[in-house]
Amino acid sequence: MPSSSLQQAFTQLMQSAPSALFPKARRLYLNKFPLDGRDSTSTLRLYVANEQVEEQIETVSDNATHRIAVLTIRPLKLALVHWLKAEPASDAAVEDYFRSRWQLDAPALEPQAEAWFREGGHQSLFTAPEGLIWERRSSLPVT
């Protein structure tokens, strides 16, 4: 289960990210902006590395002509990036970061050989916490 601070950060990021209809622009945005916020000065930053996007149309049961488009986004993998450093952060720094910034225990990290986007620093991937989700519901016009 994600912490409320992580869920709030994910929600804010998703509200400002380009639509999933524009995958290149969206990937560029998610590679550039961390969950920590645009103005983060931390040496550790958290990014959405992989996401699942689902779209569906629901019909409102009491009105067959009224439909709702539902967009659901779940991060599958998050990347912990040691900003502008070639080596991973110390275990103590990682534990402190997750505890103080996200109120979470440090997850099991999978160090990656390649640097984060545009040589942003050493990256380690981990599975996103269960329940971290963003959903948008929009009414569709009657045709």
Short description:
With about 140 residues, this protein is an alpha+beta fold. It is about 25% helix and about 35% strand. The chain is built from 3 helices and 5 strands; from the N terminus they run ααββαβββ.
Describe this structure in words.
There is one protein chain. With 143 residues, the protein is an alpha+beta fold. It is 24% helix and 34% strand. The chain contains 3 helices and 5 strands. The chain has helices at residues 4-16, 23-32, 91-102, and strands at 44-59, 67-83, 110-111, 121-127, 134-140. Strands 1, 2, 3, 4 and 5 form a 5-stranded antiparallel sheet that branches. A hairpin with a 7-residue loop joins β1 (44-59) and β2 (67-83).
> Total number of helical segments?
3
Low-confidence stretches: none
State the end-to-end distance: 40 Å
Approximately what portion of the residues adopt beta-strand conformation? Answer: 25-35%
Evaluate the radius of gyration. 17 Å
Number of strands: 5
Helix and strand sequence: HHEEHEEE
Task: Indicate the percent of residues in helices.
Answer: 10-25%
- Which structural class should the secondary elements be placed in? alpha+beta
Report mean pLDDT, rounded to a whole number.
Answer: 93
Shape: elongated
